[in-house]
Design goal:
This protein has one domain: 3-Layer(aba) Sandwich (Rossmann fold). Strand 2, helix 2 and strand 3 form a beta-alpha-beta unit. It has eight helices and seven strands, in the order βαβαβαβαβαβααβα. It is globular and about 45 Å long. It starts with a strand and ends with a helix. The protein is α/β, with parallel strands linked by helices. Helix 1 packs parallel to helix 2.
Length: about 180
């Protein structure tokens, strides 16, 4: 395993625990010799993870659409920056080079990325471990909703179980990266 795609918010959230966990993830990735692949932004949890990787001697690939670069939010300190034409193309590039995916708290964009990864995985088009860090119970309702999808017959358990959910970063790393 070499490249870990991390999907998360371009904001930091209301509670410091989200930033703290993002920082810790970046430190772990760097210390494990894993390269971060992320959305290339210089703000929010995205920036915090990237900074932590770089500060600990790791490598960071930022993949960002030109339209966001024009808004001056690209993290220029990345080891490598890949520019794309669209948000969709950014996701595709991230999926192509990811050996694992970790999802931190985020908004609509993060959920879009997560559900696309899960859809591609259940179709057998993407074969990488996918982990969801449920920091501070952030994703409790979503996990419950997914259980309801299984209960109501709209999702089979095997496909729900593609997503490895943990509230402990160490546990998630063990299940996703060190397996």
């Amino acid at each position: 395993m070499k490249n870990v795609a991390v999907f998360c918010a371009s904001s930091s959230g209301q509670n410091e625990i989200y930033a703290s966990e993002a920082r810790k993830l970046g430190e772990i990735l760097a210390n494990e010799g894993l390269q971060l692949v992320y959305g290339g932004a210089s703000r929010g949890l995205m920036n915090i993870v990237a900074d932590a990787v770089l500060q600990n001697g790791g490598k960071v690939t930022g993949i960002i659409p030109r339209m966001l670069d024009d808004l001056e939010i690209t993290k220029n300190e990345c080891t490598e920056i890949i520019y794309t034409s669209t948000m969709y193309e950014r996701k595709v590039r991230m999926f192509e080079i990811a050996d694992a995916v970790i999802i931190l708290p985020g908004g609509f964009g993060t959920l879009d990325e997560m559900f696309e990864v899960l859809t591609l995985s259940q179709l057998g088009l993407l074969k990488v471990p996918v982990g969801l860090l449920n920091t501070n119970g952030y994703y409790d309702l979503l996990a419950g909703f997914m259980d309801n999808m299984v209960k109501e017959g709209f999702l089979i358990r095997k496909n729900k179980d593609i997503l490895i959910i943990s509230s402990s970063l160490e546990d998630l790393i063990e299940k996703i990266i060190k397996k």
